[in-house]
Amino acid sequence: MKKVILMACAVAMLATVQAKPADHAKLSINKNNIKVWTIQNSQNPVFLYKAETTYDTALEKAVSLILDVDHAVQWVPYMGSIKVLSRDDKKGEFLLYMVLDFPFPLKDRDLVVQGKMIKDAQGIITIKNKAVDKGYAKNPDYVRLTHYEGDWTFQKLAHNKIKVSTYGYANPEGSIPLTFVNMFVQQQPYQMLQKMKMELGKPSGIPALPEALR
């Protein structure tokens, strides 16, 4: 079973660091049942983000989609490639290597992601991710991202009704205009949650979740 964690950012290049009370959160997008907040952290000019929506589907189906690494490149925006370096379904731990396909003339990015899958007593599932500067040799064709943290949260609201949240932050490294980066931070999670809805709408069975999430 080639299922492990697909980070949300990975999902592009973002995911989450919790905002401090003093940070300013702005509702940047609110349409198609998707909300995206951008958070200005005084310690970093690059926005953090939080995005959330609800889906009419089973919790297990949504989580399984995120964990389906082989399928990720078909729907996750800017995902060039992704491979599982290691995983332990019993402990809920994993290590991924991914390449992010940035638009020309920007250089593509890559990163190694260490993650953890957790299910709490209320049945809420969280997937936490962070970049690590080890585990895979650097490739001169890519810019290596080392400052990234993020997570996904899945909460059952009713039968076939769930709330999905994703949070994130990443330093894209290199010479990229700040205005471009912050526009990307707003649009990428919105596009991702839209594509996720389309994938969840396709007929399919509900795979068993890893042991750590049962």
UniProtKB/TrEMBL annotation:
Origin: domain of life: Bacteria
Signal peptide: 1-19
Entry keyword set: Signal
Keyword Signal: yes
Key word Signal present: yes
Pfam families: START (PF01852)
Record domain START: where: 37-214
Name assigned to this protein: START domain-containing protein
